[in-house]
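Researcher: Good morning. I'm working through a list of sequences from a screen, and I'd like to move beyond sequence-only analysis. For each chain I'm collecting a predicted structure so we can compare shapes side by side. This is the next one on the list. No need for commentary yet; just the structure.
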Amino acid sequence: MAAGTASGEGLPPEDGPWELRKESDGIQIYTTEYAGSDFEAFKAVTVLDASIEQLMAVMINPKSCLEWVHNCIVSRAFGEGDFYDRYAYSVNDMPWPVADRDYVLHINTRGDKASNQVVMRLNAVPGARKENDDYQRVEVSDTLYRFEPVNANKTRLVWVQHTEPNGAIPSWLVNSLVVDIPLKSIKNLEQVAQQDKYNGYELIYDKEGQLSGIAKAINKTGQTRGDDE
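Model: Good morning. Structure tokens for this chain:
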């Protein structure tokens, strides 16, 4: 999907009027006001020292939120799903005395050889799981991750997100977190993707050139790559 169109459900266009809020270690964090909301949307842009295969191996792991998303304290898959469409439940730790937020997310993943991109869209579906009284359920959250290889070992990431955190929480706190969380999370993601357990994967495409999954690559001896390393 070309930049300039809507990035995802309810998200601002990627080439819209974004304001650069912070730049650190090659990561640019932009924010923009969101119509009808007290909370800003953010866009993070960077080039990661990791292959797109490594990054997708991380992203399809339902527990990887615990490894790389800053303040993620619970993460698991639930319900029926596949590579294209699946569901996840997660909890984000919030500064005291604000209640921790939990998310129920539908995750859509698409990619094709022609564009050489993988696009993931995460949208809140709060009613898909019973509420937990220990947490404040997030009812509106839209996220887009766009991955595009620069070369075999580097990948460009664009991350766009807007969340209505629900409940009592000052907008100034959320609007500070929209800078800190993606910055810290992206640094974590790069380190996590370089771990041995995420090496040796390959993207699988169907005969129409559409991304259909990711799997451990098979070497000439018939072993999955990494088994004999």
